[in-house]
Amino acid sequence: MNNVIAGFSKLAKEEKINWIANSYFSTPQEAIHLLKNYWNSDEKIQKLHDEFIENTISNFYIPLGVAPNFLINGKYHTIPMVIEESSVVAAASKAAKFWSTRGGFKTTVIATEKIGQVHFMYKGDASKLNAFFAKTKLIFFDDTDNITKNMQKRGGGILDIVLKDKTDLIPNYYQLHATFETKDSMGANFINSCLEQFAKTLKEEAATFELFTESEKNIEVVMSILSNYVPNCIVRAEVACPITDLEEKHITNPQDFAERFVQAVQIAEVEPYRAVTHNKGIMNGVDAVVLATGNDFRAVEAGIHAYASRNGHYSSLSHAKIEEGIFSFWLEIPLALGTVGGLTSLHPLVKLSLEMLENPSAKELMQIVAVAGLAQNFAALRSLTTTGIQDGHMKMHLNNILNQFEANDEERLIIRKHFKHHSVSHSAVVAYIENLRK
Q1: pTM of the complete model
Q2: Residue 411 a catalytic site member
């Protein structure tokens, strides 16, 4: 069958589903039933979801869980987390409980600067371009006044614009590198609107600049776009306590535990293969809260991983030390987040999540997200340096295996009882189910 179609986006939702079902599935009615089974019964909510993206045919559910008992700067929070990976929410909750009796998490927003760039080509004398920029810089601000006035009322706006010479990388390549403060909004639309006006002003003013020759006036703007790398939009989260206070059920020798923990972090600082998995664990916590609060986890991921490579090699985002009997563990990560605009005012569960967090400002959300990442990393490293990570993870994964084999209630009871005292692995559970069913 020819699976090419013209005008697909103009089809009604039902027509799209019917075409897909009949084009790709041996049992079209089953596919149609499954897709419709995930529609929201509330037509208003479903219409809202349909309009978030293009060519919507159904909803793809990911669990929304909560991790309670997070003591952050002296205040307790219950953190919403959207994630499909088992054991993440449980691990974050355990770390929150652990540190709630040891002083809790401390956080600091170090900076909130965001970045956008106009990339352009100029074939001419660099000194003339510098003179042009010095004369024109204030005009860039003036020409964007209608875009920035509302942001300025909230304390934000354009912080600075600089001309950057990048001709050592690509012939004739220059940038207008602009920095912004966007307060409680993530600011992508605001920044991009400013940049497009900068590009327009750049071309218009260059066309009349008296020092430019006719060829120099012909500046070619390649693109105008914000950057998701925000190394000056940084939040720090940390925990610390006397080594003796680390003792608990699985930490009978706190000094040994602290030393092994610090060694594990040091390995992630120098070994990229370990650092990637180490940081992935941090992102389990970060992404889950970013998703729950309607922010762009792809932008956050890209920016954070670029930051992990800022010194020329990929390294751990978190750090640990022992000093004068005190164990300390911390991270600093770039986070460009918003609590107004985008999905924050549209998605009902995003609004619920933000309300659960007591409607934080963007700065407060940065701190909560960073804490979720640090908690997740602590939980993983505690397991790795004590009992091993697989025991707890596989016990949480047991439900997925039981669902895969459609275990009934009686089987689930017997299987869970058995694996309370036996190591869980996929092969062990499958063998036990098969034996039980014989």
Answers
A1: 0.89
A2: no
